[in-house]
Design brief:
This protein is of the alpha+beta class. It contains 26 helices and 30 strands. Strands 14, 17, 21, 25, 26, 27, 28, 29 and 30 form a 9-stranded mixed β-sheet that branches. A 6-stranded mixed β-sheet has the order 8-13-12-11-9-10. Strands 2-1-3-5-6 form a 5-stranded antiparallel β-sheet, with no helix packed on it. Helix 10 (317-326) packs across helix 15 and helix 11 packs across helix 13 (357-369). The longest helix is centred in the middle third of the chain and has 15 residues, at 416-430. The radius of gyration is 30 Å and the shape is globular. The N and C termini lie far apart (68 Å).
Length: 798
């Protein structure tokens, strides 16, 4: 006790502002359930496992720790399971995780000799007792920052429903036998709650669904609410009510009254149609879901170094799938595991290692690759009876990598591609002082864009990238005869593709990956290109090549298109992906003998007229889907008129912007010097940066897009140099080699949108494919090579 009293100056009583860690070690994935328990520093309130607490003592001199140890309680075999009443995990009324209950024991430990004193004890100094009680009663920082709950979004009450006009036109709706008033459709019918018109729903991207008559009626009349016939039952809240101006499914608290106006007795009606949410759930549990997860297959669990699962923190599968593949690359393994120990990373970390990306990447790398946590759990999988592992929860890593990012810091599902790009950007930033150690470089490559003017002169632009986005040319499908027969059969039966329940009956297009790569490398026309040689607009030819081949090539399959309800949905297609590809033909040749570069200068009046203008075709297509005209124009401008899909994605991301209804301003403002400096840091010349910012209203992101879409405006040597000339410093550090690559990783996606559903990774390890499905890790018997969202290839040298 005297030893403790002599160290009382190292004990703090936590304040409400303190971050208290008591569930997981800051440097490893040790917890109170680990063999050595967990040690909480009573000065900094950081937690450490038994093997790491001495490092903290040596670094900071803090000697007093609260030791927390958890041991499992015995569970009666006949314990009844609780029936869930809420679609949620980790909250009251949600699904029972069936986790064992634990007993906690505490003691006060004094380092360096690990002298242990019992707690609770009246003999302990009052300061220690108050400090420990405060720690134990506080909500741990791990729990505060990563809420382990996943709940379905609830529909909101529509304001339009409370003051909905209804016409006294004598229309009475029969209980069955409905048909669209403007076509022969008898399914997917919507009743407009203002005038009683029955009209069909929206047309799907593949031609199935309705004929858009319901939404067209809204555009003509502005009558806001419609209910889907066939979803009306005694449970009115389950009825599918759609608000066109709110662009969402809503609740109508007066639905009974609104239905009675048209003679509908909801209490006697039967459910005959799926709601929008039910159809999405049905699609999420279809063949793709089962195939990608290899459901129904006897997966052999695998354990050991490199075979550690990641616990799903609640819609974090996008992170898990991405990090499993990233930590299968030599660059990340070397940087954060084999060449950097946990102690080395901790010694370089700031006072709070939970906020240091280098520390948390090293922690995650050692957790995944050491094999320490890849051991069979004490209890077998309840569903299969197989041995399973508990996996490690990447909470602290997620908190750091998602810091200040509105989407990744949320509990919502995210796009694995966007997360991968965000990760590489973060890693590059923290490695800027030691670029040779930057593992993100292994994914980066140079891209050269050549534009051939009708005058015969050319211009070149170079940039760096780390993914190759591939559109899918459906016209290159290799099974066109089967597809035609399938669609003829479907038409003959009079059924929609979404209503086919036997997945064996569905025939999907099969497109070779080689066709997608060739489509990327093919030339395309650029209309309204301003030629400095002709001093006017003309049509030019654009082609793209690579100036370097990365160590790891990532292919992004652009599968998402517009679906029913204006929601981006997945293109139902298979991609035939070979184990080895050769992209040597995509090597850019740079400025060729006899080619003449376009003049640099662009007349100032052209610059003034280069204000962003929305592409009328894109705007017209978006407006036809029901979007606001002004919103559509902004979407086209802010995506540099890249296409309908890009503009639609922008709309969904910015519908709640406070200035979404503000008029488009054509005024140019003074250019902010800090914005100019930012663009210069990207490698652009100052003159080009100023012109771009002036043309883009000072917005850096728009200015960057403007530069890429106005290559003739560039006057820097970087933009017009040939690939045979001296490389810039940024280009010289890019890895390079041959064009042959071997497939080693696949991130597959199940669901109708990148922001819902589930992600799974398949990785080629030690000559066999392994599935990483959150915490489940097993030998893959049927890797879904034709169903990937992201494909990872490793360059074959020699």
């Amino acid at each position: 006790m005297e030893l403790l009293r002599s160290n009382l100056s190292r004990v703090q009583i936590p304040e409400p502002t303190h971050r208290i860690y008591k569930h997981e070690c800051c440097l490893s994935f040790d917890t109170p359930r680990s063999e050595g328990g967990l040690f909480v520093d009573m000065n900094s309130f950081l937690a450490f496992g038994k093997d790491y607490v001495t490092w903290n003592y040596e670094k900071h001199g803090n000697s007093v720790y609260l030791h927390i140890k958890q041991t499992p309680k015995s569970i009666p075999e006949d314990r009844p399971l609780k029936k869930p009443t809420l679609l949620a995990i980790g909250v009251d009324g949600g699904f029972d995780n069936n986790e064992p209950e634990y007993e906690e024991s505490y003691s006060i430990v004094i380092l360096p000799d690990f002298v242990s004193l019992p707690f609770p004890s009246v003999e302990l100094p009052e300061k220690v007792r108050i400090a420990v009680d405060t720690v134990l009663s506080a909500v741990g920082a791990e729990r505060k920052e990563q809420v382990a709950a996943w709940t379905a979004e609830k529909k909101q009450v529509s304001e339009r429903a409370l003051a909905l006009p209804q016409f006294k036109n004598g229309i009475v709706i029969p209980p069955s036998g409905w048909k669209c008033a403007k076509c022969d459709k008898t399914e997917n019918l919507w009743l407009n709650l203002t005038d009683g018109m029955i009209l069909c729903g929206r047309k799907n991207w593949d031609g199935t669904g309705g004929n858009n008559h319901a939404v067209e009626h809204y555009k003509e009349t502005a009558y806001p609410l419609a209910v889907k016939l066939g979803t009306i039952t005694a449970d009115l809240e389950a009825a599918d009510v759609y608000s066109y101006p709110e662009d969402d499914s809503v609740l109508d608290p007066l639905l009974a009254q609104h239905l009675a106006h048209f003679g509908i007795d909801f209490s006697s009606m039967q459910k005959t149609e799926m709601t929008t949410a039910e159809r999405e759930l049905d699609q999420n549990t279809n063949f793709d879901w089962n195939r990608i997860q290899e459901s129904g297959k006897e997966l052999v669990p695998v354990f050991g170094p490199g075979y550690t699962g990641l616990v799903n923190l609640g819609n974090s599968c996008y992170l898990a799938a991405t990090m499993q593949i990233v930590f299968s690359t030599h660059s990340f393994i070397s940087r954060y595991f084999s060449h950097q120990s946990l102690k080395m990373a901790y010694e370089m970390a700031p006072a709070d290692p939970t906020l240091d990306l280098n520390m948390q990447l090293t922690k995650l790398g050692h957790g995944l690759l050491s094999g320490k946590y890849s051991i069979p759990a004490t209890e077998k999988d309840a569903a299969t009876g197989d041995a399973r592992q508990e996996g490690i929860p990447p909470r602290m890593f997620k908190n750091v990598i998602a810091a200040s990012h509105a989407e990744f810091s949320s509990m919502r599902q995210q796009d694995a591609l966007e997360f991968f790009l965000h990760l590489l950007d973060k890693v590059e930033r923290v490695s800027n002082t030691s670029p040779d150690l930057d593992p993100s470089r292994s994914f980066r490559f140079g891209v050269e864009e050549k534009i051939l003017c009708s005058s015969g002169k050319v211009t070149y632009k170079k940039r760096d990238d780390c993914i190759l986005p591939l559109s899918i040319p459906l016209h290159e499908a290799t099974n066109k005869d089967e597809l035609e027969a399938f669609h003829n059969q479907k038409a003959g039966k009079g059924v929609e593709e979404n209503d086919i329940r036997s997945t064996d009956e569905i025939v999907r297009p099969r497109v070779p990956l080689e066709a997608c790569l060739a489509n990327f490398a093919s030339s395309e026309q650029v209309h309204d290109f301003y030629s400095t040689a002709l001093k006017g607009k003309t049509t030019a030819i654009k082609s793209i090549g690579l100036t370097s081949f990365p160590d790891y090539l990532v292919l992004h399959m652009r599968k998402f298109v517009m679906g029913e309800g204006w929601v981006p949905k997945k293109l139902d297609v298979y991609i035939d992906v070979p184990d080895v590809i050769d992209i040597s033909y995509m090597r850019s040749k740079g400025l060729q003998p006899g080619e003449e570069l376009l003049p640099d200068s662009v007349p100032e009046e052209v610059m003034e007229s280069a204000q962003p203008v929305a592409n009328e075709e894109i705007v017209a297509q978006l407006v036809s889907m029901g979007f606001n005209q002004l919103h559509c124009q902004k979407a086209a401008i802010n995506t540099s008129n890249a296409g309908v899909e890009e503009a639609t994605n922008w709309l969904f991301s910015h519908m709640d912007d406070p200035d979404i209804d503000a008029p488009i301003s054509n005024k140019t403002s003074d250019v902010d010097q800090s914005s100019v400096d930012t663009l210069i840091s990207f490698g652009f010349a100052e003159e080009v940066a100023r012109k771009a910012l002036k043309a883009s209203g000072g917005d850096i992101e728009k200015a960057t897009d403007w530069i890429f879409n106005n290559p003739n405006a560039s006057v820097s040597d970087m933009d017009v140099s040939s690939s045979n000339s001296a490389q810039t410093p940024a280009q010289s550090v890019l890895p390079d080699g041959g064009g042959k690559y071997k497939l080693f990783g696949i991130v597959s996606h199940m669901g109708t949108s990148v922001h819902c559903g589930h992600y799974v990774a398949h990785i080629l390890k030690e000559g066999r494919w392994v599935i990483f499905n959150d915490s489940k890790v097993g030998i893959s018997t049927d890797p879904p090579k034709d169903m990937g969202y992201l494909y990872f290839f490793q360059r074959i040298d020699g």
